[in-house]
Q: What sequence folds into this?
C-alpha cells in the first residue's frame, strides 16, 4: 500500500531505482520528522531528482493519512498558474475563491505528502507554497528544483550522481549502480548484449566520464543500437569538453550539456534541425504539428531517428471513446524536460529560435482556426478533445505572441479558442488575457477580440458586468454590423439579464438581427435561445416557445450538438413551467447526455437542476433537495455560475422542497453534495433515493460505503483509485477516510488495514 497518486504523466522514471538506498533511508527519516515541512531535492537536470522523489513518495506515502500526491509542474508556464494546477491535480474546487485560498481551506485538515516536481522555473511561486504550508499544518512538501526556494524552514538536499565504481574489477563494475543503469538501458536496445570484462571496463570509463548522471548514462547506452562500446567511449571522450567550460553553470550540468551535444552531433543534419525545433513544444506534439514547425512535408523519418537516440518518446494515448467519436487518436510524442531545454538552447545557438517559435505559434493558430467550424457542429466533441490536448502548446504560443508584441496573432488565437474555453470552462488563459488588456499595447479590433473572450470566461464564472461588455461596444461603430459587435452586444445582454430582463431581450434581439444580416446562423440561434430563457423567466411562455422553435429549426439544420442540448433544456423548463411535466424527462435526459459527453459543466448542472425541478413536481422532496445540493457542489468544483437556466429552474425546484423540515432539507443537500457528477446523474434519472440509506456495519458503526472504502484501503489503493473504483468523488473518499479513522480510533492507513483484516471473515 503506497497512498501515492499522480496528477498527470511524469516521464523519465525508468525502473528500477539504482544506487539510492542510503539517500532513501536518510530522506525517509527526514520527511517523517514532525518539524520538517519542506524538503527540496536540488541538482542539475538529469541527475535523478524526479526518480528519487517518486521513490520517496512510494515509501513515505503510507505514513500520511491522506497518502502522497504528485504534481508535475514542468508544463506550467506562469507563476500565477501554480496554485490552480495544484488545486486541479488534487481535485480541489476553487469556485468564487482564488485557487490558493481554496487549497488552504481544503488542505487545512489533511495529512498529506505533496510532491511538486520541476519547480525551478516557477520560483516566484515560492511565496504561494509558503502560505499553503502555513495554513495547512498537516502538509509536508517534497520539491524537486535546480535552485533552492529560499523559504524559512526549507531543508535542502543536493542530489548527487550515481556512485561510481572505484576500480575496474568485474565484480565491482557489475555491482556499480551506474554500470547497472547503463546495462539496463542497453538491454532495451540490444537484448542480446552480454559484455565481457573488457567491455565492462569500457562501460566503467563511460559512466565515470559522465559523472554518474543518470540521463547522460541512458543517452550514451542508447547508442549501442548503432555503435560498439569502444566507439561510444572514443566519441564521448572527444566531445566532453567541446565549447569549453561554462563557468556560470555547475560542473555536472556542463557534463550533461556536453553529453547532449555529443548525442546531437551523432544525428543527421535534418534530424538535428528537427530536434532543436521540437524544443518549442510544451506538453507533446503530433507528427502534423512537427512537420508544420519544421517546414517539411514528412518528418516521420526524422522522428524515428530521434526516438532511436532516446531524445523523444511516444506518449500513451487514450483508446477511442465517445469524446473522440469514431476518430483514432493521433499519435503524440514528447521529450524529457531536460532534453527539451537543451534543444531550446541549441535552437538559440543556431539563431533559429525566433523563427521556430513563430512557426510554432502560426501552426497552432492554423490548427485553432481550422477547428472553428468544427467547434459548432457534429464534430464538436472531436475538436474539443484535440484542443484540450494542445492546451499547453496554445498557452505557450499565446505567451510568445504577448512577449514579442505579435498582438495580431495573439488576438487571432484568442478569437479561435474563446468558444472552446467557455464551453469547457477552461480559465487557464485568463491571466494572459488580463495581461494583454492591461499592457496598454492592445488596441482596435484586436483589443475587442480579447475583451470579448474575457467576457465569455467571466460570464461562466458569474463575474461578467455590463461595464466589461460595454468596453468592447464603446470601441465599435454602432452603425456597422460585425461579428465582434454582435458578440459584445450578446455579452452586454446576458450581463443585464439579472437586473433588467427586458433590456437584455432588446440586446439579444438586435444580436439576432445582426447575425441574420451577416449570415452567422449560429450566433443568431444562440441569441434567440437566451431570449427564450428570459421570456420564460418573465412567464411569457408563448414567446419562449416561439423562440425555442426557431432555434430548434436552425440547430437541426446545423447539426450543432450544443445548441440542440441547450434547446432541449429550455424546452424542458418550459414543460416544467406550464406542463405537461412528463414531457420534460426525455428532454432533460438528452441535455444531460450531451453535457456528459462534452464535459460541459454549465449544461450538466443546468440539466441536474431541471431534474430537481421535475422531482419537485412529482413530490419527491428528498430527491430534489439532494440534486440541488449536488448542483451547488458541482458548480463550486468547476468554478461556474448558473445564469439564465438557474433563474428559470431554481424556483421550480425550490418550490418542491418546502414540505421538508429544515434539518431534512439540509441533510439531503449534504448527501447530494457528496455525489460525483455520475452519481448525481444516476439519481436524476431515477436512481435509488438517498434517504434509503444502508444499515451500518456491525462492530464499528461503519456504513456499507465506508466498509467499501476500508476494504479498498486494505488493498493498497490510493484515494484517487478508490474514487475511480467506487465511482464517487475524491472529496467523498477523503471524508470517508477521515470518518473511518475516527470510528476505528486509528491515525494511519496501516492501522486501518490491520483493523480491516481483523474484521474480515475467516
A:
Amino acid at each position: 500500500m503506497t497512498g501515492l497518486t499522480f496528477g498527470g504523466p511524469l516521464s523519465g522514471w525508468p525502473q528500477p531505482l539504482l544506487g539510492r538506498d542510503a539517500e532513501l533511508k536518510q530522506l525517509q527519516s527526514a520527511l517523517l520528522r514532525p518539524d520538517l515541512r519542506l524538503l527540496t531535492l536540488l541538482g542539475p537536470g538529469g541527475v535523478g531528482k524526479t526518480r528519487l522523489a517518486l521513490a520517496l513518495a512510494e515509501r513515505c506515502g503510507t505514513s500520511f493519512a491522506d497518502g502522497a500526491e504528485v504534481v508535475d509542474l514542468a508544463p506550467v508556464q506562469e507563476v500565477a498558474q501554480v496554485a490552480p494546477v495544484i488545486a486541479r491535480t488534487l481535485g480541489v474546487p476553487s469556485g468564487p475563491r482564488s485557487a490558493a485560498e481554496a487549497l488552504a481551506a481544503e488542505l487545512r485538515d489533511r495529512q498529506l505528502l505533496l510532491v511538486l516536481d520541476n519547480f525551478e522555473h516557477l520560483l516566484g511561486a515560492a511565496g504561494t507554497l509558503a502560505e499553503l504550508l502555513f495554513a495547512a499544518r498537516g502538509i509536508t512538501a517534497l520539491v524537486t528544483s535546480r535552485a533552492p526556494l529560499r523559504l524559512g524552514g526549507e531543508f535542502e538536499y543536493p542530489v548527487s550522481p550515481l556512485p561510481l565504481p572505484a576500480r575496474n574489477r568485474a565484480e565491482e563494475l557489475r555491482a556499480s549502480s551506474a554500470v547497472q543503469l547503463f546495462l539496463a538501458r542497453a538491454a532495451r536496445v540490444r537484448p542480446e548484449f552480454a559484455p565481457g570484462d573488457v567491455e565492462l571496463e569500457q562501460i566503467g570509463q563511460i559512466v565515470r566520464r559522465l559523472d554518474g548522471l543518470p540521463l547522460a548514462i541512458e543517452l550514451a547506452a542508447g547508442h549501442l543500437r548503432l555503435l560498439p562500446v569502444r566507439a561510444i567511449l572514443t566519441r564521448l571522450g572527444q566531445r566532453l569538453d567541446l565549447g569549453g567550460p561554462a563557468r556560470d553553470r555547475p560542473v555536472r550540468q556542463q557534463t550533461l550539456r556536453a553529453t547532449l551535444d555529443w548525442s546531437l552531433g551523432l544525428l543527421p543534419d535534418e534530424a538535428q534541425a528537427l530536434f532543436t525545433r521540437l524544443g518549442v513544444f510544451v506538453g507533446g506534439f503530433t507528427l502534423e504539428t512537427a512537420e508544420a514547425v519544421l517546414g517539411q512535408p514528412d518528418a516521420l523519418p526524422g522522428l524515428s531517428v530521434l526516438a532511436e537516440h532516446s531524445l523523444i518518446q511516444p506518449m500513451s494515448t487514450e483508446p477511442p471513446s465517445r469524446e473522440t467519436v469514431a476518430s483514432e487518436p493521433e499519435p503524440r510524442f514528447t521529450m524529457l524536460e531536460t532534453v527539451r531545454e537543451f534543444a531550446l538552447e541549441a535552437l538559440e545557438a543556431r539563431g533559429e529560435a525566433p523563427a521556430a517559435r513563430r512557426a510554432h505559434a502560426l501552426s497552432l493558430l492554423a490548427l485553432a482556426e481550422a477547428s472553428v467550424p468544427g467547434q459548432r457542429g457534429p464534430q464538436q466533441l472531436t475538436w474539443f478533445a484535440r484542443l484540450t490536448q494542445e492546451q499547453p502548446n496554445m498557452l505557450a504560443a499565446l505567451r510568445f505572441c504577448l512577449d514579442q508584441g505579435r498582438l495580431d496573432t495573439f488576438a487571432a488565437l484568442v478569437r479561435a479558442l474563446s468558444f472552446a474555453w467557455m464551453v469547457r470552462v477552461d480559465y487557464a488563459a485568463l491571466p494572459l488575457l488580463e495581461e494583454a488588456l492591461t499592457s496598454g499595447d492592445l488596441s482596435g479590433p484586436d483589443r475587442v477580440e480579447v475583451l470579448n473572450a474575457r467576457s465569455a470566461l467571466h460570464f461562466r464564472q458569474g463575474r461578467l458586468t455590463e461595464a466589461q461588455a460595454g468596453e468592447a461596444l464603446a470601441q465599435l461603430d454602432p452603425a456597422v454590423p460585425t461579428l465582434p459587435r454582435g458578440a459584445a452586444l450578446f455579452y452586454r445582454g446576458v450581463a443585464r439579464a439579472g437586473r433588467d430582463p427586458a433590456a437584455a431581450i432588446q440586446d439579444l434581439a438586435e444580436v439576432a438581427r445582426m447575425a441574420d444580416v451577416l449570415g452567422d446562423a449560429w450566433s443568431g440561434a444562440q441569441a434567440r435561445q437566451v431570449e427564450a430563457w428570459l421570456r420564460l423567466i418573465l412567464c411569457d411562455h408563448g414567446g419562449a416557445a416561439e423562440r425555442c422553435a426557431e432555434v430548434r429549426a436552425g440547430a437541426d439544420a446545423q447539426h450543432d450538438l450544443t445548441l440542440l442540448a441547450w434547446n432541449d433544456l429550455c424546452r424542458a423548463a418550459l414543460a416544467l413551467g406550464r406542463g405537461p411535466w412528463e414531457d420534460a424527462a426525455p428532454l432533460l435526459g438528452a441535455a444531460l447526455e450531451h453535457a456528459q459527453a462534452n464535459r460541459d459543466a454549465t449544461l450538466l448542472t443546468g440539466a441536474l437542476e431541471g431534474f430537481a425541478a421535475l422531482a419537485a413536481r412529482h413530490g419527491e422532496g428528498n430527491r430534489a433537495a439532494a440534486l440541488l445540493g449536488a448542483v451547488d457542489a458541482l458548480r463550486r468544483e468547476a468554478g461556474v455560475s448558473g445564469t439564465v437556466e438557474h433563474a428559470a429552474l431554481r424556483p421550480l425546484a425550490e418550490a418542491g422542497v418546502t414540505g421538508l423540515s429544515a434539518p431534512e432539507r439540509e441533510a439531503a443537500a449534504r448527501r447530494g453534495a457528496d455525489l460525483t457528477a455520475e452519481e448525481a446523474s444516476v439519481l436524476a434519472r431515477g436512481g435509488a433515493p438517498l434517504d434509503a440509506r444502508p444499515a451500518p456495519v456491525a462492530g464499528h458503526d461503519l456504513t456499507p460505503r465506508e466498509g467499501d472504502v476500508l476494504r479498498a484501503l486494505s488493498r493498497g489503493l490510493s484515494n484517487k483509485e478508490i474514487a475511480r473504483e467506487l465511482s464517487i468523488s475524491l472529496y467523498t473518499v477523503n471524508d470517508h477516510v477521515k470518518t473511518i479513522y475516527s470510528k476505528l480510533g486509528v491515525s494511519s492507513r496501516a492501522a486501518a488495514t490491520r483493523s480491516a483484516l481483523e474484521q474480515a471473515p475467516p
Q: What stands out?
A: The chain has 37 helices and nine strands.
